[in-house]
């Protein structure tokens, strides 16, 4: 078993009860695995594909377009949302909405009208409550006024995820970010005023030439200003990016595995000192400010993927067979499909039961909460311990990488640091 080499970037996924109490009760029961499948909460992911510029490291489905047709995009999003809710039987009012997540691209570049249209559609076809988590991603360069943030809060956004990446000028320049450290700081402080306790920020570590000391200094500064949630990613070289070209041509060298491991360990220690819980490989929260949306993804909650390139994981309303859905990626093609067919969904694949088991294992081993035994049985019809390689499970428990209780199998902090390798070992 090797030590951690990389922090894998967050897998971004993406609900309506009749009342807030119904949502709280059904979510709690659901997490214990005792809710009937036709009453399970679900989530909604909305993809806004536009950015003002391209960051050197990013291979998300994003486009720089100076002439975005906002009205057409908004209409297409609402059209697809309505058709998909009906197609998957999610407009029947029996399944509460757990979370709505506006991701991108850069959703903070969209007009406030886009958020309002989507949320109005959801509340007319399902039922939004004050407890449904409604998050959006934002960039510092497009959220320059506190009034703009308040307008988003007044429309219904109740959690804000700000992409800061770094507070160092030279790193921001190298990443191709279109904001300065001071703009980022102002955006964060404004967002904390508007959504106290509900602001998350993204930071990236492991830049070319970054030392352990540089990273610790950046983290210490961050700990003084951070709200209650932090996503920390290791810079990953993705194909098709400018960073990939630079690394391939030898113009740039990223920190090696040992330095990355040291940075990761320093991160866990420093965040713990100020009360953060390391609840997933890349995610830290205090005061229980976990992301409901992402947590739902990790425990197998259905989510509807809306927008160009969005993907989803949804159950057939009658057979309960799970499907993975994939949307047309380019915005023009996706809008055309929505206009002509009512949806930009281009592929719908049945998820084999064995794939569901593997996904629950891989995502569960990345979380401190691990895998709920009842939940695993409910979703797959097989006991988790029956599914896993028994010798490997016993070995990992003896080695202090896994913990088994009557309710769950979870990685220890050491186990989570090697989550991907742990999953591979545990597979039958
Ligand atoms: C799709 S971005 C959306 C957020 C927003 N557009 C922004 O850039 O601030 C989500 C997050 O993924 C992370 N990310 C994207 N590509 C990455 C990479 N190659 N390596 C590490 N983190 C990455 C960044 O931290 C980014 O904030
Ligand atoms: S990191 Fe965010 S702002 Fe930068 S290109 Fe990717 S989606 Fe756009």
From TrEMBL:
Alphabetized Gene3D superfamilies for the sequence: Aldolase class I
GO CC, one annotated term: mitochondrion
Key word Cell membrane present: no
GO MF annotation: an example: 4 iron, 4 sulfur cluster binding
Biological process per Gene Ontology, one example term: porphyrin-containing compound biosynthetic process
Statement: the UniProt record of this protein carries the keyword Nuclease: no
Keywords of the record: Chaperone, Heme, Iron, Iron-sulfur, Metal-binding, S-adenosyl-L-methionine
Pfam families for the chain: HemN_C, Radical_SAM
Radical SAM core domain boundaries: 36-277
Known function: May be a heme chaperone, appears to bind heme. Homologous bacterial proteins do not have oxygen-independent coproporphyrinogen-III oxidase activity. Binds 1 [4Fe-4S] cluster. The cluster is coordinated with 3 cysteines and an exchangeable S-adenosyl-L-methionine.
Family that this chain belongs to: Belongs to the anaerobic coproporphyrinogen-III oxidase family. HemW subfamily.
The protein's name: Radical S-adenosyl methionine domain-containing protein 1, mitochondrial
